[in-house]
Structure formats: C-alpha cells, structure tokens
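Notebook B, p. 112. Complex prediction, attempt 2.
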Amino acid sequence: MRNVRNHFDLIVAGAGIAGITSAAAAASRGLKVALVSTGPGSFVLGAGCVEVQNTDQGLHLLDESMNFFRNLTTLAGCSFRGGIDEIRYVPTILGSFQTVSFAPFSIWNGAPEAAAQVAVVGFKGLSSFDANFVAERLAYHAAKLGKGSTYIAREIELSREEDTVAGTLQFGNRFDRDLSFRQELLAALKPIAAKASLIIMPGIFGLKSGQDKIEALESELGCLLCELPTLPPSIPGMRLFNRLEAYLRCSGVEFFTGFPIQKLEIENAHFTGVLLDAPARPLRLTADSVVLATGPFSSKLLGTSSFSVNSDLRPMESSGALIAGNLYAAGAILRNSSARGGNAMAILTGYASGMLAAGVGVQYAQR
Amino acid sequence: MEKTQVVIIGGGATGAGILWDLALRGIPAILLEQKDLANGATGRCHGLLHSGGRYVVKDSEAASECVSENKIIKHIAPHCVHDTGGLFVQCRQDDPAFFEQWFTACKKIGLPSEHLTADETLALEPNLSGDILGAFTCPDAHVDVFQLTLSNIESGVARGASFKTYAEVTAIDMDGGRVKGVRYRDTLTGEQDYIACEMVINAAGGWAEKVAELAGVEVPLRCDKGTLLIMNHRLSARVINRCRKPGDADILVPAGPVCILGTSSITVPGPEGLTVSPEEIQHLLDLGAELVPALAEARVLRIFSGVRPLYVPKAVSGAGGREISRGFALLDHESLHNVKGFVSIVGGKLTTYRRMAEAVVDLVSKKLGLDIPCTTHEVLLRQAHDEAALRKAHKLLPLPVVEKLDKRLGPNLAKIVSAIEARPELAEVVCECELVTRAELEYVLGTATSIPAKTINDVGRRTRLGFGPCQGTFCGYKAMLAGFQTHRWNAAEASEQFENYLDERWKGQSWINQGKQVEQLYLSHDLFGVAYNFHDQEGR
C-alpha cells in the first residue's frame, strides 16, 4: 500500500546541520527527499561555526564534504569562509576567542588580525549584552594571542516598536522587513565606523536576510561587521537555518516541521516508513531509505541506548547485524557522551549519509 | 585588628542563630564564615521544618524539641516558612505495628496528628501510590534555609553584630589556657587579620572537629552523608514521609516550584569532596517511586549531598548513622579540657537551630558573668513589611514577582520599589524560574544590603537565581554582567566568577545520567564550554 504523495526516495529525520547537509547531498543527486523535524535543531544555539578537530573518522571525506557544505551555503546566500587547514580566532559573548576552521562570513570577520581598530557595539536596553565587558575581555585575550588590535566599547540606541523590549529577536525581525530600521542602524553605526575598521555587535542582521543585505551595510559603512550569537535564540544560527531551508525547498526537498517521530517502522531489518505525531492523526511517510540525524539524545528511536555503525554509517546491533539495511545515522546521534565532534562531524556524516542513500559509493570509515 | 566579646565560627543556621541571640542580649559578637552563609549542611538539606514525627518513635527527646521549635519558627519567621503540613504515609509493605507505635508516641509528646483513610489521603495527594493504606497528618513544613540564615544575620547586624564571609579561621590564639582571639584569612583577597575576643563559639558543623583542633581539643564527629535530588516539579502539596523506621529516600519536601527527595545515609571521612554514585541515585529514585510513582519519570534538576555532623561520644562510636541521636551537644571545653573561653555546639538539626543557639548563649553569658534571658523565641526575625511599598510594587511588577519579593525582602522591598521607580528598566525579570528582577539582582550585589553577595553563587543563595531548570545557564550570565555593571567585579573578575559558577552548577548536574536535564546540561556546555576553552586551558 504505497501512497505516492507520501512516498519518498529518502526521509531525513532531524533539521540540524547534519540533517540539512544530508538532505542537500541526496537532493543534489536527484533524490526526492522529505525532511522531518521538530524544529531547527542546534541552529538556535550557535552560529554554525565549524572546528575541524577530534574528527578521527572519515577524514578522507572531510575536504569533499566541507566543499559541498561551503558551496551549499553560498548558493543559499549565507556563505561560509575558511578551510579545513585554517585556524581562526573568533570572538564570543564572554569576550574570549573561540577557534574555528569554517564560519559564516559575518563571524569569520571577527578575528583579531582582521582589523587594528575594533569597536564593540551594544544596544541601549539590551541587557543580555555588555559592550564594555566584551571589549575589555577581547582586548585582554587579543593581547595574550599577541595581536595588536585595540577594542573600544560603544553604545547605540535603536527605536523600538511600541510595547516591545529591546531583544535580538525583535531587532532581527525588523532588520528583515523594515528598510527604515536598516537605515536607522546604518546612521547609528556610521560615526563609529568612521573610527573603526571592524564593528563587533550582537547578531541582529535578520532572521532570513541574505548576506547581500549585510554586505550592503558593510560597504556603506566602509567597515567590516562581525555579529555575535547572544544567549539563545541565536539570530545568526536561525538565519542560517532559514536560508538553507528556503534553498532546499527550491531544490525540491519537502519539509515536515514540528512533528516528532512517533515510530520508526522497521520490518525484517528493512526500514519502511515513519509515523509522525501530527495534529489530529499520525502522519505516515514512507521511503526507500532513511537518515537519522535526530541529535545526541535520540538513540531510543532505534530501541537502544547505544549502538555502533558500520563503515557506511548504518547502525548495528551489538551482534553486528544491521538494524536495517536502508537506515543510516548522521550527526550527534553518533557521538557517545564523551566525544566532541560538533559541526565538523555533523557536516561530514550528513554529507556521507546523503551520498550513501543516493547510491554514491562513499565510505565513511576506511576499511 | 578588631576587638569584640564573642567570635562565632560558622555561618550556617546555628551560627547565624547564635549571632542573633547574642545581639538580642546586647553581647558584641562577630561571626566568621569560611565560605558563604548557609553553604554547609544548612544549604544542603531538605529544608524540612520537622514536626517531630520523624524521630517520635526512637528519640522522643529530639522529637519533643522539634514539636516546640516547629511552633516557634513558624511564629518568629513566617516569611521563611511555607506551612504545607505533612503526611506520614502507611505503605502496604511496611510494618503495621510501627503505625500504632508512631501514633501512640505522637499522642504522648503532644504532636498533633490525625488519621486519614487511603481515599482521604489520595484526595489530598493524588500523586501518592494508589496502593497506600492511609496516612497520619502532622505539622511538617518547608523552610527556606537560605532566608532563615540570612534573616538571622541581617537582624543581628541591625542590632550591632557583624559578620565576615569568605573568612577562614587559621588559628585560635591562646594565652595561659584562655582564648584571646582568632586569626583569619580572607579567602578571596588572601589578606590576614586578627580579632581579639573573650570567647570563641565553634558552630562549624561538619568542620567543627577541624576548628576544635585549632584550640587543641578533640571533638569527635561522624560525618554522615545524605544525598538529595531536586525534581523539576512539585509532586506533592505536603511534606510526604514514609511511616516506618527512618530509612533512605522516605521524605519528599515540596519547595516552592520544585520538590526535594532524600536522603541516603552514608558515613564519609569529612564534609568535603562528596561524590554520588549512579547506584545511589537510582536507589533513591526507586525507593521514592514506591511512595510517589511519578518520581520514576520526573526530571531531576540537580543532585547534591550534605553531611550531618553527628556528635559521637566514645560510648556510641560503633553505631550507624541513623542510630546516633539527632539531639545536639553543647561542649564546655573549660570543664572538659581546661580550655577557657571556648565552647562547641555540635550535632542537632536545622529545626532546632534556635534552641541550640539559646543553649550556647545561655552558657556563654553565664561565663561572661551576665544574666540576660533569651528572647529569640518571641522576637520576630523580621520587621513587618512596608504596606505603601507593597502597594507600589503591585503597580510596577507582576503579582507573582511581588509575592516572591515580599517573602524574600520584607521591609527592604521599599528599596527595590524606589530603584525601579528611578530606573524602570530594573523591572526586567532576569531569572524567569525564580522571578528575580534586575533590581533585586543589583540590590544583593550592591552596598545597600547588609548581606551583600560576593559571588554568583552567593546571589543564588540570596535570591534563588539559577535554582530552576536552566541552572544558571541564562540568568547566571546576566548576573555576571550585573556584577560587572555595578562594579562588584571588574571584567576579569566577572569572567572568572562566571566560570566558577558554571563549574559549580555543572557539578550538581553531572551526576544526572539521563533525561531532559542532561540535554539542558549539554546546552550549557555548548554555549559556554567552548568559550571558556574548558578543553584547552592554555587558550584562556
């Protein structure tokens, strides 16, 4: 009994970096893909920065998968900078530097070598960010890294819509839809940009705006912009998700968002479909194969608390038998509680699983 | 160098109670605490204001003490007490003879109790196991241990007493067998100082043995570890006890929005470096679920341990933790060891802290040649709140915030109200679980309070900030910024404060091995772990 409308070549479960990359890889090979998720995964927490380290497996695929991901972000209008051999220090809201290999361009900009004169800008009323604190700590850490950049703190005031508080979500939303807000921001930043070659500020450059809008702001200011993800939700992370989602939709990927997986249907070691906890009645989707990219706390979907995968990312029972021949795992569901693979592993396994599901003979682990 | 009459060592409930009692009797005193107020066993217990039911069968003296102190605390410190009432639940698998014994013993010491049928009990507490036989009522209550300790200190200070936190006593200075003073070290700045005094009271709880050694005397203590689990929801309206011989995990205390299950009883070498095993946690949860089945599925927010500092005179040193009396011992080292001017107060329990303080201060005043009666049983611990300020607060803040503020701050609410009137942005709620406003945050970090917070954890003990599900991941960061903005810390200190705070918060969650709180912990790690380079200490 196959409902054509609800049948796919591949179901990807989970819309974090791993799931998105997996769906994109499979779609690029012509697969009809459904992406089911409860929400935008870990995108709401961070900015999507990638640190290539502790990825002990699949290193031969690293270059290929990172290139794929970088290409994807460029096509989606939210391009990444960096490379697998690069190490760059980018600022955090604690005023420290975090090492990354790949990052959205607006974060990549924040490295201390990028500029000599840096202004850290806070917004009046935004209580969860303090420009003085961040500037003072960045100056300290930059000096420790032997970088000569100087950091000054500045505060600007942005108008608020009636009955709203100053919050990155409100500002980000207005950045997207309100030209006068962007002009106001430009006017407020202009005098600061006159004396700085880089401005670091809390991320408010829209929840879905393309990088062209940020670049336009940069060129009008004549200065680089670096945005910091603040306490969740992270505006840069949500923008990245929204851009990638929009791009994948255009590429034919169907999204089923907001529905937890009720059941994974596996018969005789063969995956047949998923039951989604949709309003009114469960929604059943079927597919030829499935990628589980459901995050670090989701192995119970497989009816087990821990599992291992074979060389092509297919989960095995402790006996070594495959749980299902057409089931792959990607992203943080693979990490045991102590390992840290982060986004690099998510991109790597996401790419590999999507390719494998499309029948492209990549191998995750070398035999 | 300072000079006073009495130095108290230990800033738990007992030490704080002693400071207040001395202040009421007009005896000059300084309290020294090595960390923050209520940091030891006081801040690591159930927060149960015992009715006496727990001890009534085996230790009627301790039970009688509880009966009277329960009434007194409810009278003098209503702002610290949530008078929930309690139940002693009869489980099918427990000894029916004990039920009889329990009820008879209560009658004998005047502990008010009534019997409820199973249906009546379940109507009151639907989360109890449907399999119970019935229950007895009792006047158990929840007491906010932090507020209780802070109120004693604050009231003492208002009457001229003083205290120092993060002041570790390094030596007790003696001359001819008589105490002359104490040396202490500020553990935050490293500075050393000296206080000259006539008497030293050792109220150091689990650390009392160590303090006594400074005076060259032996105080034999048994450190008995109790582990407690804080659950995300309040699963009962009343304190739930299991009606049987005291054992593990047979008390569930509703504490504001959460509830606390405990405890275990394991002898440990000392009050520091406590660890919890996964087996211990599972054991507590399994036992707790016999009483309240929902505990099996509930989310554990945090796990912590404290030690009961039990006094073990040589005669009973072979007994197990639960066999040793919960009564307290007042040790006059002049008559015991010929050390003049030094007394220790050990054992006892939170519920009887006031009586312990009374006993010590009676002895101390006698030794000082004074004859002033104790009045801590009748003088209210806090002045009435300011009605006008309360009315204004209702206009400025949401009702639940005002209710919490009123309980926490009483008359000091007026200061919060005027701060918000001057700067409306201070009305922002910074900790959404415990409803802490920015105004209150700045107040406890500032100099307008007599008990300022020196660390972010201190802020928690004063306001309950960070005690909810996020465990400080969001509000701790904001508290750090507030400390920076109010000049409590410079940027480097603020950053270090936050790192220490996260470390402490993570420690309390690290024993939890499953469920939603693990996800919460990962979130916290993902947000801040990288920034602090916890995996690469060089980069920091």
